[in-house]
## 1
Amino acid sequence: MPPLPPAFSDVLDALIPSDLRPRVDASYTAPKAVVFRINPLRAPDAAAVLTALAPLRPEPVAGVEGVFRLPADDRDALTHHPMATDGSLYIQGVASMAAVWALQPQPGEEVLDLAAAPGGKTALIAASMANQGRLAAVEPVRARFFRLKANLQRLGVRNAQLYLKDGAQVGRLVPGRFDRVLLDAPCSSEAQFTRLDPTSWAHWSPKKVRASAALQSRLLRSAADALKPGGVLIYGTCSLSPEEDECVLDALLRERDDLWPEPLPWPVDLPALPGLTAWRQQPLHPDLTLARRVLPTEWTDAFFLCRLRKRG
Ligand SMILES: C[S@@+](CC[C@H](N)C(=O)[O-])C[C@H]1O[C@@H](n2cnc3c(N)ncnc32)[C@H](O)[C@@H]1O
C-alpha cells in the first residue's frame, strides 16, 4: 500500500499522541464502518425503516436517536437500498452530523448554511427545525448547486431557499440577519485520504492547504458578519491541518472582539482531541482549546469543529 504524502504524515506526527497513533494509522488502510441517520422528514416511523432494512442489522450509535452503524461490507447494500434512494435514510458520517448537533438549530429560526452542497448538513438542519423557520443554503459551484437542490428535494426539505452565490459576499449583503450560521468550509479534504486509493490525495499539497486557508478566512468573516448579535456560528472543516482550522479562527479572534469560542454541545462519545493553542511555535487564542478535532478511526472521519458566540 502506498504511504500517505510525507508532508501530511508530518502533520499527523505533530498532532496525534503516540497512544492513539496506531488506531489513526489503521484507519487509512481499511474501509470504514458505514453510519447513517433515519430522516424524520421522510420517515417518521424509524422502526419501520429498520424492519425494511432486514437482513441488514444496524447497531444504534449511543447518545443520539435515529443514528445507526453497519460494518463496512454492508455499504453497497445500504447505498442501493430503496430506503436510501427514497430519502428515508441518509448515509452521513457521525462527525458531519456533529456539526449540526453543535449548531442546535431550532424550529422557527433563521439559519444560514454558507457552503451547502451536496446538502447532508442542510438536510439535517431542516430536520432539526422540523421544516419550520427559514433556512438559507449557499453554494457557488453550479453542478454542486443542482445536486444540492435534488438532494434536498429527495430528503423532504421544504424550508430552504437556495442561492447560487459566493458565500464571501453574504455577510455584506445581509449583515446581522441569522440566528445561527454553519460554515462547513471548502478545504483540502484531508479526511478523504485512504491508502486503499492513492488518488484520494491527488489534488492535495501544502500549497492547496494555504489556498484553502485564504478562502476559509474570507468565508469566516462573511459568516461572522451575517450572524445576529447573540447568535451561534459553527466553523468546521474536514481537514486536519491547523492552518485551515485553529489558525483561521485565531486570525478572526485577533481582529475582532465581538466573537468568542464556547464549549461544543457533544451528544456522542467521539474520539476527539481539544483544539490547539499553539502551532509551529506560534501561540494561538487560548479558548481555541474548546474546539474539537475528531480523529480518523475505524468508524469516524477526521473533522474539526469550533462553536463561536457573537456578543448580544
Ligand atoms: C465541505 S463542502 C460542504 C459539504 C456540505 N456542508 C454537506 O454537508 O453536504 C464545501 C462546499 O463549499 C463550496 N464552496 C466553494 N467555494 C465557496 C464559496 N466561495 N462560497 C460558498 N461555498 C463555497 C464547495 O463547492 C463545496 O460544495
## 2
Amino acid sequence: MSSRPRRPARPYRRPRRDPVRILAFDALRAVDERDAYANLVLPPMLARARSTGTLDARDAALATELVYGTLRRQGTYDAVLAECVDRPLREVDPPVLDVLSLGAHQLLATRIPSHAAVSATVELARCVLGDGRAKFVNAVLRRVAAHDLDGWLTRLAPPYDDDPERHLSLVHAHPRWIVAALWDALGGGREGIESLLAADNERPRVTLAARPGRSTVAELLADGRADPGRWSPYAARLAEGGEPGALDAVRDGRAGVQDEGSQLVALALANAPLTGGDTRWLDGCAGPGGKAALLAGLAAERGATLLAAEKQPHRARLVARTLAGNPGPAHTVVADGTRPAWRPGTFDRVLVDVPCTGLGALRRRPEARWRRGPEDIDRLTSVQRELLRGALRAVRPGGVVGYATCSPHLAETRLVVADVLKGLTDTGAEWVDARPLLPGVPDLGEGPDVQLWPHLHGTDAMYLALLRRTRQGAGGPFCRADMLNT
Ligand SMILES: C[S@@+](CC[C@H](N)C(=O)[O-])C[C@H]1O[C@@H](n2cnc3c(N)ncnc32)[C@H](O)[C@@H]1O
C-alpha cells in the first residue's frame, strides 16, 4: 500500500533578533519584576546599547516609545487582551503578558503596519519565550488586530453619559480612582478633565534649571539645543530628543533636569515676603535635591545658608552631591522631619516637599499610575501632616513655610493643610497668597494656595501652600483654615 506523500517539513528557521524589541522587553521585565522605574532603568540600557553600536539614535527613540507607550496604556491593553485570551489574564505568565502588551501597543497606538507589528512581536516571542509560546502570542495578536484602538474602545468603554469615569478611564488609560481624584481637584466639566488626562499621556520635553551662581539660562541656550522656559527665569527646555548629558553645565552639576513647576515652587518660597532676619533656610524633604539646589543658589546670593535634610541616607548622599559646588554655604543632614534634630523656631524659610502619590508627575513616570492605589493615601497623608507640623515648628514666628506636593489629590493638598491648621496648639499660622509669587503664570485659581496643571501650564501638577507662622496657637486670630473651601 502506498502511503500519501508527506509534505516536506519546513526547515527550522532561527528567530530574527531585533535589538530594539529585545531591549524594550528587557525594560518591561525590569519594571514588572523589580518594581523598577522606566525613567531610571531605560536610559542606562539605551546608553549601553548605543555605546556598543547595537542601537542607533532612531532605534533608541523607537525603544523608548515602545516602553513608555506600553506602560502608560497598560490598563487599556489589559482590557483588550482580556477579550482575546481564553483564560483570566492573571493566569498568563508575566513575561508572556509583557510580549502581548508590547504587541498590542504596536498594533493599536503606533503607525507600524499590523502585519509587521504581529510578525515582529512573534519573532520577539520566539527569542525570549520559545517557539511554543510564540504560537500563542501569534493567535492572540491576530485577535487584537481585528479592531483598531477606537474600535476596541467602542466595544469596551461604556458611553460617557452612562458612566463618565469608567469611560474616561478606558479611553485615556488612567485607573478609575485616579480619574475621580484628578477630576475632584480640577473641578469643571468634561473638557478640562479630558485635556488633563490627554496631557498625562504626552511625554513632556525635558526641562533644565540653571543653578543660580553656577550657570545661566543664556549658557544653556548657547548652542541651540534648548529654548527658554515658559515661566521660570532659570528654565530652559531641551529640543525634542535632546540629551541633558550633552550639555557641559549639566555634566558639571551647574544645571540640572527639573520640571518648571518644581522650579516655581522653590522660587515662590524664596521670594515670599518676610519681616526680620532672612539667613537660615531649611529644605526638610530634600532628596534627591532638585529644589534644594535652586534654593541653595538663591540663599547664597542673599547671604543665607540652606540646610537640606533627608530621611533616607542614600538620597541624602544625592543631595550632598548636588549641593557640592554651591557658591555659598549649604549643608546636608540625614534627619527625620517628623522628629527634627533642630530647635523649634530656628529657620526663616522652610520647604517641605512631602512624599506623595506622585499623581502630578504621571507624564514622566509611565508605570506609576498602575502601581499606586487609593490605599496609599491614608499612609501618605498621615506622614504629610506630621511633616507640615514639623515644618511649622521649625520656622520662627514671622517666617514662612512652603508645603509642596507633586500630587493634586485634594487629600494630599488642601485637606492636609486645613487639617493641620485646625489642630495647631503650640504654633499659629496664617496663609500667604502664593499666586503673586508666581508672576505671569495664569490660571492659578482662587488662592491662597496654587495648583499647577500639565494641560494648563505644561508643568507637573505641583501644589503649593505658603504659610506664615504667627505667635498665636490654635484658635488665634490668624489660624485661617477657614480661607479654604474644604
Ligand atoms: C517628593 S520627594 C522631595 C523631592 C525634592 N524636594 C526635590 O526637589 O528633589 C520627598 C522626599 O522626602 C523624603 N522623606 C520622606 N519622609 C521623610 C521624613 N520623615 N523626613 C525627611 N524626609 C523624608 C523622601 O525620602 C523623599 O526623598
## 3
Amino acid sequence: MFVLVNLKAYPCDPIAVAEAARAVAEASGVRIAIAPQAADLAAVADTGVETWAQHVSPNGYGSHTGSTLAERAAAAGAEGTLLNHSENRMKLADIDASIEAARRADLETCVCGNNPAQIGAVAALGPDSVAVEPPELIGGDVSVASADPDIVRDAVAAAEAVDDGVDVYCGAGISTGDDLDAAADLGASGVLLASGVAKADDPKAALEALVEPLA
Ligand SMILES: O=C(CO)COP(=O)(O)O
C-alpha cells in the first residue's frame, strides 16, 4: 500500500512531518510520500522523503503568472503530483493538460475524483493513479472505507473498466491501521490522508500506528 500524506495548507511543520515520514518509511518498508505546499517542495525533498506536489498547472514555460510549473516542481525534487483534488478542482481539459505537463517533467500523477463516475472519467485520461475522496468525509473522523465501502469498490471497478493499469487509491477520514487494512480489502492499492497526520500532536506516532499492520 502507498501512503500519500497531503499537508494541504495546514499549519504544521512540513520538515518535521517529512523527517518523521522518511524514518517511518525506512523502518517499515512502506512507501510513504509527503505532498507539502509548493513553496516547501525543495526543503521537504531535501529530507529524503518521497515528495509530491499538491497540484501542477496545465501550462508549460511561458507567460503564466501564478502557475505551478511541473518542470519546476520536478526540479525542486517532486516525484509526483496530485491533480484535481476536491479542494482544487480543475476543468477536464486542464486535467488532461496537467497530466501531459507532469509526464513531460517525469512526475507520477494521481488524479482525484469525488465518486466512481468521476474516477472512470479521469482514468480515461491515462494518469498513473486515481484517488476517490468523497468531499463530505474529508477532514472527518470516519474513514471512507467504513463509512462508504461501496464508493471504494465501485471506484476500483470504474477505473478497471476503463484502464486496468491505473492504480486506485482512496481517501477521507483515514487515520488508523485498520482504515488502511479496510481500504486494501476493498481493492485500493494506496491511501491519501491529511488531518490524521498533519493535525496530529505526534505525526511520527500517527504514521507508525497507520502502517503498523503492513510493517
Ligand atoms: O483530502 C484528503 C487527502 O487528500 C483527506 O483528508 P483527511 O485525511 O483530512 O480526511
## 4
Amino acid sequence: MLEIRDLCYEVDEADRTLGILQGISLTIPEHKFVVVTGPNGGGKTTLAKAIMGIVEPTGGQILWNGQDVTHMSITDRARLGISYGFQQPPRFKGLRVRDLLSMAAGNDNMTRDEACQYLTRVGLCAKDYIDREVDTSLSGGEVKRIEIATILARKSGLMIFDEPEAGIDLWSFARLTETFRDIHDRRDATLIVISHQERIIDLADEIIMISGGKIAKQGPKDQIFPEILANTISGCSYLTEGAKA
Ligand SMILES: Nc1ncnc2c1ncn2[C@@H]1O[C@H](COP(=O)(O)OP(=O)(O)OP(=O)(O)O)[C@@H](O)[C@H]1O
C-alpha cells in the first residue's frame, strides 16, 4: 500500500517561493490501478518523482508498505519494488536493449525468448530491437516502449508510468493498454499511470486529478471521469459556445 501524507514540494525562485505540491494526501491500496490526470503544470510528474525519490519533498511523508521512504535514495526505493518510467526516458549509449532488460530483471542469463516477451508486450518486434543500442538512433516512441519493457522486466510491486502514451503510435498503444490491463487483471503490481488518454483512464479503478499542486478530485473512475469530461468542456468558452451554435 502507498500512503502519502501532506506532501509538499516548494522551490525558491528569485523573489518568491513556488508551492509545486501543496499538501497532497492519498492512499493507494495494493494492486489498484490509479490514473493521475489533470491540467499541464498541475504537479503530476513532480508527485511521481517524489514517490521515486528523484525529487526530495520539502514536507510530508511517503510510506510504501508501511515503511517511510520519504528521504530514501532512488536505489533503495527500487530495491523495495518501486519503479518509474520517465515522460521522456533517458538513452544509454553503449548499452544494448537486451543488456538493459537483463539489468532490470537482475538476471545475467536472460534468454533471448524472455527478452523478446517483454518487448512484445510493448508492441516492439523483438528481433529488430534486441541487439540495438539504446542511443539516439532510436526514435522517442521506441525508447519509451523499451523503457516500459524494462519496468515490466523489473517486476516491481509499484509501477509508475509518466504519460506512457506520449509519442507512441496507435498500434503499439493498443498493445500497451492490453499490457496494463493484463498486469492489473493478474494483480501483479500496483499501477500509477499519469495520463490524459481516455483509453488508459478507462482501465483505472480510481482517478486522481491534480491541479495547482493539490488534489482537485479523487474517486472511482465511474464517478470522476464524467465529472472531469463535463468540467473540461464547460470550462472552455470556445467549446461551450461551439456547442450552443
Ligand atoms: N525545480 C523546479 N523549479 C521551478 N518550477 C518547477 C520545478 N519543478 C517543477 N516546476 C513547475 O511545477 C509545475 C508542475 O510541474 P509538473 O511537471 O509536475 O507538472 P505536470 O502536471 O506533470 O505537467 P504536464 O501535464 O505538462 O506534464 C510546473 O509549472 C513546472 O514548471
